[in-house]
Every structure is written in C-alpha cells, then in structure tokens.
Amino acid sequence: MQQSFTLKEIAEMTGGRLIAPSGDAAINRVNSIDSAGSDQITFISDMKYLDNLRKSSAAAVLSPQQLEDVNMAQVVVKDVNAALIAVLEKFAPSFDITPGIHPSAVIDAAANISDTAAVGANTYIGPNVTVEENVFIGPNCSIVADCSIGRGTKIEHNIVMYPHVVIGENCIVQSGTVLGSCGFGYRPVDNIPRLIPHIGGVIIEDYVEIGANCCIDRAKFGNTVIGFGSKLDNLIQIAHNAVIGKCCLITAQCGLAGSSRLGDGVILGGHSGVSDNVSVGSGSMLGAKSAVVSDIGPGSKVMGVPAVDSKRFFRRIVSTERVPELRKQIKQLEKRIQSLEKAANNTK
C-alpha cells in the first residue's frame, strides 16, 4: 500500500527546518532531482546540481542550507545523507512481522522460538534452534539445527542456515543466502581429492547486513566471523575460517579465501579478492578487481592483480599508455643511428 507523509512530518523525522507556505502537502515518494514529480521530495548535497534543481518538478527538497530562487518547499537539515536515509526508511517496503508461526511451517519440538517472532510459510526450524524477540523469518527458509538468531534480526525468503550458525541482534540476511555450508577444503588421498570435514561454525555479530545470494562457509575448526556492523553486498563468497572485522564494506562479487583476515573498516571494491591466509590491515581499501596475495598493512590503498599501492598502479597505467609513443620514438632513433653509422662508414 502506498504511504504518504506531510512535509511537516518529514521535517520532524529528519530534524529539519521546513520552509514552505504549508506543511500539509502530501509527499508520496523520494526521487532524484531530474525524475521527481509534483508529489515527491528530492535532495541536494552538492550545489553543482542547483541549476538542475531549479528545473525540477519536485514538490520539496532536502537541503543542507536555505536555497534562493528555488520554486519548491525546502527542508533544511544538518546532514542530507542522514536525512535522506531517515526518509527512505519510511518509504521502503517492509515485511509483515506480525508475531506468529505460519500453519505450514515445520518446527521441531526442541526449538525455542520467542512469542514475538514471525515465521513464514513452508519454513523449517530444526532442533536446538533459538529465535529471540522480534525476529522475522521469511517463507521457505531452512534452519537446520543448533543455530541462534538474535532479537530484531530479519531473515528473508529462501535462506539456508546449516548447524552452528550464530546471528546477532538487528541483522539483515537477504534472500537466497546460504550460511554455514561446508568449506572447500580437500587433500589428496590415493591421488583422489578427499573433502576434509568442517566441524566449526559461523558467527555473525550485531548489526551485520548480508546481501542476496551470498555464501558464508563454516569453519574447519572454530568459526568463520563477520564483525559488528559490517555490510556485504550480493554474490559474495566468504570461505572457511575467514575473519572480517568491524564495520567493513564488501561490494558485489568479492571473495575471501580460507583463513583470510580483514581488519576493521576495510573496504573491498567490486570483484576483488583476498588469498588464503592473507591479512588486510584496518582501514585499507581495495580497488575493483584487485587481488591481494600477500599481507598489507593498515590504511593501505591497493589496486591490480596482484594488488600494489594504488599510486604505483596508476603510474603503471600512465606508462602503459605511453608505450605506442615510445615505440615510435625508438624506431625513429634506430633510423637515425643507422643513418649516422652509414655516414661514418662512408667517410672511412
């Protein structure tokens, strides 16, 4: 159902100052400057887009300062990004977290489920699973055994949790993700690769968000760990015994090999990876498609395959771009040398 808020309500939810003839105008959506309609609110954080805003059809704008010559209502806020998040949270689709267990769900007698939790249709919850207060578990999930889900966490549709997965409070796990599957660890026995049994678990700390279709393997021994506040995009592979620090950002199609370690606040660009048993220091940043094959220290900025310091990487790019010009110059020098040698030989 479409939801709307008055400008006055939006000013209150953002802690902003409303500049408008009336605060009763209804806002039905948040949109970009160029696409916003007459019943929608937009935002501006960079004044280079001010001319675009003046041409916009939006009913109102979230702005860090009062704007001149702008023909729309304004909500002046301290932090546009924080205000935008607050408004988007109100308009974002929400799950029905009405407490209760769907009649088609299968719940083991040894499971412990809070009365305030919601369990969707066709979901299976096995023995010794603990589901705390205000947890949402969507349809078609399978939580095999010996798992726990902290209060306020949302487990969306079609998610599998193998045994010994612990999820903290206020986490989000999006659809299609698999937690605690067996790690990819093989050793040759009689020239045949044999799978090493993985008997560890997965620990996902509080306020972690995991995107759709991610795979996080259980540890061989101990635990694979996703640290407090870290955010994982879609299509990410975290191998057995990997440890991710607090508040890391990992974008789509990244991979961490077995026993790799990320410090706190590490950012991985899309399609980048870390080799097995390699550590990445806190605050480091990996550019897109980078491959880290040896330890890097805190605060590093790296790119490339294998990853090197980003400044060095860009110097390589500049040098590579000059290769055709340098080849041309070398050919010209070769011709001059040949001409000089010929002239010298003729004078003998």
From TrEMBL:
Classification via HAMAP family: LpxD
Keyword Transit peptide belongs to the record: no
EC number(s) per entry: 2.3.1.191
Keywords: Acyltransferase, Lipid A biosynthesis, Lipid biosynthesis, Lipid metabolism, Repeat, Transferase
Protein's name in the database: UDP-3-O-acylglucosamine N-acyltransferase
Stretches assigned to the Mannose-1-phosphate guanyltransferase C-terminal domain: 102-181
Swiss-Prot/TrEMBL catalytic activity: a UDP-3-O-[(3R)-3-hydroxyacyl]-alpha-D-glucosamine + a (3R)-hydroxyacyl-[ACP] = a UDP-2-N,3-O-bis[(3R)-3-hydroxyacyl]-alpha-D-glucosamine + holo-[ACP] + H(+)
Enzyme active site: H240
Listed GO CC annotations: membrane
NCBIfam families: lipid_A_lpxD, PRK00892.1
GO biological process, one term: lipid A biosynthetic process
Function text: Catalyzes the N-acylation of UDP-3-O-acylglucosamine using 3-hydroxyacyl-ACP as the acyl donor. Is involved in the biosynthesis of lipid A, a phosphorylated glycolipid that anchors the lipopolysaccharide to the outer membrane of the cell.
Matching InterPro entries: GMPPB_C (IPR056729), Hexapep_transf_CS (IPR018357), LpxD (IPR007691), Trimer_LpxA-like_sf (IPR011004), UDP_GlcNAc_AcTrfase_non-rep (IPR020573)
UniProt pathway: Bacterial outer membrane biogenesis; LPS lipid A biosynthesis
GO molecular function: N-acyltransferase activity; UDP-3-O-[(3R)-3-hydroxyacyl]-glucosamine N-acyltransferase activity
TM spans (from-to): none
Highest taxon in the source lineage: Bacteria
Family matches, as Gene3D superfamilies: Hexapeptide repeat proteins, MurE/MurF, N-terminal domain
Family from the record: Belongs to the transferase hexapeptide repeat family. LpxD subfamily.
Domain annotation UDP-3-O-[3-hydroxymyristoyl] glucosamine N-acyltransferase non-repeat region: ranges: 24-89
Oligomeric and partner information: Homotrimer.
